[in-house]
Q: What sequence folds into this?
């Protein structure tokens, strides 16, 4: 995925505005002369995968045009504690003004990439894919999904408008699996794939008998039932396992032969990677 400079600029400006309020960095302006320069070193304090460097560096450049930057690592790099990521040199006031916003983006996105990498590594050689969900921080979905890709995962749908996913509440509102699938198939057009969520083997049988779905989400299935479900679906429909997935359970889920495992924790529960900005005057 390519991060558009326009989108990055909008997100960074909104974050800076939130931090600055309607004024300026009162502490830096009171303590530091306007003519003073400084060099900041972005450094990893823990092992992890780097993601979001362009967003972090954009924070500095949008705060002040007079920065010189030297990059030592790129997104996708596997960092060790102590590794230098980049150096930023320029006005000391502006460096301190941008510091927290830049680190918030970089630490969070790198945390998402690092957690995703852990899930991907846990199921390597199974043939199953790890993907994200829409359980993202409002406003940051694009950045979080980018970080998932950097971690080796895949992206599920980005929003409600780019894929058909019939959930349990849709089925409840419409009345049945058959009715939901029939309506979606009739009204969506032949270019749209249809995914439907089921939580019982009986519902799965209804989906398979109907024949109009392309993907089935097997939600919160116990392992024995998940194995039965995957066996029934083999060669007929793409399978996705979802619900209650953790690093402790993901390997066993993948070994059932399911095609994809969607993991909400990648974006809603990833711990920030410890990255710091050390300043030399």
A:
């Amino acid at each position: 995925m390519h991060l558009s400079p326009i989108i990055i600029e909008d997100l960074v400006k909104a974050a800076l505005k939130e931090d600055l309020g309607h004024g300026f960095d009162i502490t830096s302006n009171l303590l530091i002369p306007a003519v003073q320069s400084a060099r900041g070193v972005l450094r990893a304090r823990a092992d992890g995968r780097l993601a979001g460097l362009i967003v972090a560096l954009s924070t500095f450049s949008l705060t002040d045009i007079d920065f010189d930057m030297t990059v030592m690592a790129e997104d996708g790099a596997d960092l060790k504690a102590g590794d230098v990521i980049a150096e930023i040199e320029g006005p000391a006031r502006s460096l301190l003004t941008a510091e927290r916003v830049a680190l918030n983006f970089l630490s969070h996105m790198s945390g998402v990439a690092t957690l995703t990498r852990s899930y991907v590594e846990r199921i390597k050689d199974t043939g199953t894919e790890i993907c994200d969900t829409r359980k993202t921080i409002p406003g940051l979905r694009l950045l979080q999904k980018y970080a998932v890709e950097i971690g080796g995962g895949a992206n599920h749908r980005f929003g409600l408008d780019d894929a058909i996913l019939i959930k349990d509440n849709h089925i409840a509102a419409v009345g049945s699996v058959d009715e939901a699938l029939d309506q979606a198939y009739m009204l969506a057009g032949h270019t749209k794939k249809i995914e439907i969520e089921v939580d019982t083997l009986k519902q799965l049988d209804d989906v398979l008998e109907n024949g109009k779905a392309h993907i089935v989400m097997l939600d919160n299935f116990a392992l024995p039932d998940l194995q039965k479900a995957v066996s029934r679906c083999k060669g007929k429909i793409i399978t996705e396992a979802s619900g209650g997935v953790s690093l402790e359970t993901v390997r066993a889920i993948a070994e059932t032969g399911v095609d994809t495992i969607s993991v909400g924790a990648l974006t809603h529960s990833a711990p920030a990677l410890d990255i710091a900005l050390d300043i030399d005057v």
